[in-house]
Amino acid sequence: MSVKKRVVFLLIMALAGLLGEFLLGNLSLNHKFLAGAILLLVFFTAGRKVLSQYQTAALLFAALSLAVAYSTFLSHSEIYYSFWFNFLLSSLFLSVASCLLTLKPSTSLHYLSFLVFHISVLVVALGFVINAFGERRCYLPLHRGEELHRCLPIVHGKLLRRDEAFPMAVKLQDFRVDYYSRAPVLGVFLRQGEKFNMVKGFELRKGRRYFGARFLGFQQESRRFEEKWGKGAVGAYPLGRISPSGWVYSLDAFPGMLAVVDGKRTLYYLPEKEQAVVLPDFAFVIKGFSDEIPGHNPPVKIPVLVLEVYSGYGTAEAYLAEGDRGLRFGPYSLYFSTSQVSPRVLRPEEVLVKERELKFLRGIFDIRGRRVVLVPGGEPFVDGKFAYRLMRPPVQEKEYASLLLVDGREFRVRVNSPAKHGGYTFYQSDYDPSDPDFSGIMAVREPGELVLYLGFSLMALGALLTLAYRRRTWR
To answer: Which of 18, 65, 375, 429 sits CB 3.0–4.6 Å from 440 for a disulfide?
Structure first.
């Protein structure tokens, strides 16, 4: 058959696939599969001679490769669930099967390599078909401490806003975001009039000098704190934080509200004696409540929280008075107000206690014969016309991971490290930076997975046999 007739035949097949996409677009998967099978049978009957030629299979493979490349790099359209794409893909598999039927059995290495490689294509096709009818994808929006028995289905790559039953109970035990560990940077500032302008930032090396400051090294200490958590309407929240159902706090809380602001978000707490608020470089433990500022002469009657502050400098006591001035520690600001609305009181069994370890880092410098301690994000040290400040490096996320309880078994799910249970594979899908208690998990069931692995293994074996045959031929 001439090349022209072969190309015309393939163009007619492609147009038939596009027409089927237009006519069958809103039908179910079963109806599309039946229509595609009938269409393939018609073309196989009318053009078996064309389909059984290797050039036809090569042309179909080239056309599909171009379609995949266009969808991946030049377009945002999803072609893998379209009728025309799957019709042409099925035509390629049918062409490969037709080529196999033309072979005459032999014991040669050439025949064996050809047979194994082409059978692998058919096995891969079978795996795709099994997955097409048995695959299930769904999304589990989990909150810390919450157990779900339902999920949001994902159909053709789209998340549907309707929930359906999930065969297992899935609970989010814990969620964390890990960051790349980078040493603080020394910022050197030059006085220009009434202001200091930054000259340069240095990545510190022990023993080196930076504008008169000699870096002696880092010192690190760690402390453990107990954070109290309350079970809110959705997941578990730090004790006192606002939950969707209102305030959450214990019977021992002081009146008022404590707000911790880091510039991006605000966390609210109803303060309680010995309550710890743990931040990346600071920790505050509430020691008591007073109606006047301690030690102030003359006495000032104003509600005050007494705080014990832990930082790279060490331990100190601070007084947080009610009002809009607050206290500032590095990038964090603390505010206290006695206003509150309808607090919800927790029973003792609803309070969780979590222990956290906080590592405090501080840099030690020799500045013109004076030993100076700088804390990341702390106050600068001014020496004449220069000022030195230890600055935090930009925060860069490394990975996020969830600790799941699935039917009573514990699994840790990380990015690119899923967990498998009960025929489902659980992937870490996403998270919400504004909600540290939320984790999005995608659950996927692929019954054709083992068949696909077998097909790809046979494909690799066929490729090796082909290389062995070619090497013998070249000799």
So the answer is: 429
